Amino acid sequence: MTKICLVRHGETDWNAVRRIQGREDIPLNDKGKKQAEECGHYLKDFYFDVIISSPMVRARQTADLINNQVGLPAIIEMADFMERDYGLVSGMTIEEKKKKFLNQEHPSVESWEALSQRVMKGIDTIHEIYKGQSVLLVVHGGVINAILGSISNEELGHGKTKIMNGSITNIENQNGTWVIHNYNQVGHLSLSYSNND
Asked: Which InterPro entries does this entry report, sorted A to Z (predicted)?
């Protein structure tokens, strides 16, 4: 049974002001670094065979800070887990996007279908390579929502589930079927670091 512990990266300055953050490489802010350190402190008591990260800087910084305490020999980067490409709306605040596009998706934005196919291809690759192992996977909110939506037949995911910075979600492959054990867990974070809009 392959187990995957998904961690959303820590906060960035763009997260803090609700600015849409797709493929821009925005680093963690001080709060985000603290969130990552608290994730590492919590996760060091669990066993993992491998740590995998999105190659984007905010995810990789989070993975590095977690691995300072988890202590695995290397971090593997997988491009399948890059954040959704938001196209022309990337860099806008949520409010700016609503005003300009009236809550419609701009054609330049990667579709949820394409995002879900991409990230689930990555999940299948992990299951093929690390079957029966325990994997720590550091990614993005949109990626986690795409995974939750795919596994839950859209009961969870985009528009339904808010994924917090530094939160933990656990899934497991049981006899060929992915099962969600829990999602958006933030009990390991300091109260002041888990209040993220």
From this structure: His_Pase_superF_clade-1, His_PPase_superfam, PG/BPGM_mutase_AS, PGM_Phosphatase
Both tokens assigned to 131: 């079957």
**Please, how many CA atoms are within 13 Å of residue 118, restricted to the half-sphere of its CB?**
19
> Does the reported pTM lie above 0.85?
yes
Query: Known catalytic residue: 158?
Result: no
Domain 3-194 has CATH 3.40.50.1240: yes
Residues at the annotated binding site for substrate? Answer: 8-15, 58, 83-86
Kindly name the residue from 37, 38, 83, 110 that is annotated as catalytic: 83
Q: Give the C-alpha separation, 1 to 195, whole Å.
A: 33
pLDDT of residue 135: 98
| Residue 172 annotated as catalytic | no
